[in-house]
Amino acid sequence: MSFVAGLDLGAGSTKAVIIDQDGRIVADSIRRTGADFHAIGRATLDEAYEKGGLRPEEVVYIATTGFGRYIFDDRSIQITDLTCAARGAHALFPDARFVLDMGAQSTRAISLREGGKVRSFRTNEKCAAGSGGFLERVARYLEVPLDTIGEISAAARDPQPISSVCAVLAETEIINHVSEGRSVADIICGAHLSLAERALSQLKRVAFDGPVVFVGGVALQKGMVTACEAKFGQPVYVPEKPSHVVAYGAALLGLQRLSKRSEQEVAV
C-alpha cells in the first residue's frame, strides 16, 4: 500500500499528516518551526514515518502548504494554506460552512462552497495583535507558560478589555492593567475576548451565519474557544487536533491529485 503526506510548514510550528489511499490518517507529528524549513520539514516527516511504522519510500506523494511550502525541496505539489484549511475542516465537519484558522502569524476567516472549496476569505491586518503571536507576547510579559494560558483564562472574574489593534499599544494596555492590580487571569481572558472580537469582525465579512470550525494552534487554548463561543453566537467546532487540520487538508488534496494522475496514466 502507498501513502500520501501533507506537510504544513507554518510560521510557528510544522505539522505532518500521513493518510492511506482511503484518506484515513495513519500518523501525524508536530515540531516547532526553525530557520531551515527543509530540515524541520524532513524531521517532522521522519517522526511521522516512525509513528506510523512506515518507510519513506512508502509515501509516494508529498503536498506542502503553509508559510514555507515553496522551500521544501522534496514536495510533489504545493497548495495554499487557505485551500488546505477549507478541505481539512470540511472533511471533519461536513455541515459547517465557515472556518476560522488562527495561527502564530495570521488569522483567516473562510466561507466554504460545496465540497469544502473556498468561497471567500478575509485575513487580519499585518499585526500580531490579530493572531496567536499576540498571545505569546501576553504570556511572555505576564511570565506564564504559553501552554497554560488557556486554563488560566477560565479562572477570570472580571476580564479586562484590550481595545488596541496594534500589538505594541495593546502591550501598553496590559502594562496598565498590571499596574492597576488586575489579575493575570482577567488580563489573559481580556486578550482572548479581544482576539475573538477581531475574529468575529473577519467572519462577518464572509457572511458568517452558521457553525464555524476553529483550527490552528490557538484553538488548543480552552479560554480562546470559550471566548469565541461567547462572541460568535454560533456553534464552534474544534477538531481533536486543530493544529493538524491544514496538513490533513493538504494530504487529502494531494491524494486527490495523485488519484487523478493515476487515472490519466491508465487512460493513456
Summarize the structure in words.
The structure is a single chain. The chain is α/β, with parallel strands linked by helices. Strand 6 (98-102) and strand 7 (107-112) form a beta hairpin. The protein has helices spanning 37-52, 81-92, 132-142, 149-153, 167-179, 184-204, 222-232, 245-267, and strands at 3-9, 13-19, 25-32, 59-65, 77-78, 98-102, 107-112, 118-123, 212-215, 236-237. The longest helix is centred in the C-terminal third of the chain and has 23 residues, at 245-267. The strands form 2 sheets. It has a 5-stranded mixed beta sheet with strand order 3-2-1-4-5. 42% of the residues lie in helices and 20% in strands. The protein has 2 domains: 1-93 and 240-268, ATPase, nucleotide binding domain (Nucleotidyltransferase, domain 5, 2-Layer Sandwich); 95-238, ATPase, nucleotide binding domain (Nucleotidyltransferase, domain 5, 2-Layer Sandwich). Helix 2 packs across helix 8 (245-267). The protein is globular, with a radius of gyration of 19 Å. The mean pLDDT is 91.
The portion of residues forming beta strands comes to: 15-25%
As laid out across the biggest beta sheet, the strand order is 3-2-1-4-5
- H-E order: EEEHEEHEEEHHHHEHEH
Could you please say which CATH topology of the largest domain applies here? Nucleotidyltransferase, domain 5
Largest sheet: 5 strands, mixed
User: CATH superfamily name of the largest domain?
Assistant: ATPase, nucleotide binding domain
User: What overall form do the CA principal axes indicate?
Assistant: globular
The separation of the N and C termini measures 23 Å
Can you tell me the number of structural domains? 2
Radius of gyration: 19 Å
Mean of residue pLDDT? 91
SS summary, helix count? 8
Question: Structural class of the secondary structure composition?
Answer: alpha/beta
Class of the largest domain in CATH?
Alpha Beta
Counting copies of identical and different chains, the oligomeric state is single chain
